[in-house]
Task: structure prediction
Amino acid sequence: MLNIVDLHKSYFLGHVKVDILKGINLSIQNGEMVSIVGPSGCGKSTLMNILGFLDTPTSGKYFFEEKETSCMSDKALSSIRNQKIGFVFQQFHLIRRMTAIDNVCLPLIYRGIKKKQRLQIAAEVLERVGMSERMHHKPSELSGGQQQRIAIARAICTKPSVILADEPTGALDTNTSKEIMELFMELNHQEGITLIIITHDPSIAKQCRLMVRIKDGRLC
Ligand SMILES: Nc1ncnc2c1ncn2[C@@H]1O[C@H](COP(=O)(O)OP(=O)(O)OP(=O)(O)O)[C@@H](O)[C@H]1O
Ligand SMILES: [Mg+2]
Result:
């Protein structure tokens, strides 16, 4: 479902061109669970941002569900992003002044879903991630693991086909990381959501069916 061919990404620092990704080829099937590993600065987040249409490659092709995306308009790309992709980050990225359920409702507002239905969907996904009892709490009243569960609920409430998670357990202790990984694996097995996880943790990488290692801008 995701296919990238000879993908390059370079940044300019002043007049100096820095090549970050140097010809990545990668094919990820529907329902796959993939980890992306590699040293800090090797381009993991850069690759993930491109996969999630938050950034564009310098060259190369990216097919999303068989459609080549490089010639698509920004509007078409953000529509794929909103409809098909859920994001989870290391620092949760919840809105601090909003309760858990209001955070989960946000992507549903952007979809134009009415309030009553929004609250119903949000309550269902909060139950799915085991956070029903905390839905009226604000992020500051929740532990890191609980905040990540809320962030996962927000990512899945629009029924994405892919979740892109950038070091989702990077800020959590070992036991909480395990619980969050169990939740991800359930979502992968039970709902068939394709999961792509950047991690520094070898034990997490090993739990994924496919491990992709980036070194010197290439897969190895
Ligand atoms: N917007 C940008 N402008 C210039 N250089 C950038 C930009 N974004 C990232 N880089 C550079 O690209 C390289 C790869 O960054 P990236 O964030 O993808 O690494 P990473 O593998 O995710 O690292 P980490 O494990 O530390 O999160 C780094 O050298 C970084 O400085
Ligand atoms: Mg990164």
Q: What stands out?
A: The chain has one domain: 31-59+73-219. The longest helix spans residues 174-191. Strands lie at 2-13, 16-28, 33-37, 59-64, 67-68, 85-89, 162-166, 194-198, 210-215, 218-219.
